[in-house]
Amino acid sequence: MKNRILFILCVAVLAGVSQVNAQRKVVGVSSVKITPSIEASAKADNSLLSLQRVAEAIDGQLIDSLNGTRKFEIIARSDLDALLEEGGLTGAGLQVGGSDYLIVPSIDDFQDLIEKATFSGIGATAEKRKIRLGMVARIYDSAEGTLIESSSFQLDNKFAEKLLNNSTRTGSFSDELLRQIAEEMGSKISSRVVDVIYPAKVIMVAGPQVTINRGDGTNISSGQVWSIYTAGEEMIDPDTGESLGSAEVNIGKIQIERVTPKFSTGKIVEDYGIEKGSIARPAGQ
Which residue segment(s) compose the domain that 167 sits in? Predict the structure, then answer.
């Protein structure tokens, strides 16, 4: 009887430890900010409405994309902005409702141009909308109030353009183009957040097949090649004494074959000692 009770207690303790280890990080996401100079420029060329619509749409798409990674608990923006304002008034710093990290996205580049072509031979005109959108996303450690990452993102006409026949500029995006831009930018930012806070890792190696903990919603797709690294010696900045992380040694590559909601699998294309726990990144990063 005593052994049985001891066994039950052990199971309960292990279950509690598992729940603690599996607890997701809490991320607060600020509303998308627009830098004053970009807002003034958009107002001058009558594209302010488009800029505001993009900012509002990215707000929602970024939250949706972060939630889709299944990595975080997320604080709603409306609550977050109020907490940030209160923290500024009281001098309480960046600690936000128990969040581990704070994401502050801002638009620092925006252009919406229409190029018009007239085909006199057939009596028709065509318009090509060319978009350029630049953003910066800053990631703060909420407890320490320190910046741990600042990344820039750019979308241009290679992604965001639309041919409009027999049309004139209205000063606003079509709904479809707006959705595409917001969705793509939200995905780019959320993927970077995940990579900074939770670098992708190998969770299983079975013969020629490798599984990593990246799934739908994290910019991974079938056919991509990912490089695999192992952590080497810790690097220390000789000027500040600050740890710069560990040196990384490439130990192989895999090609993604299957993407599921929670993980992806790929076949090994180069292997110099790939093992469970190794870091994975898209080739070229």
Answer: 25-197
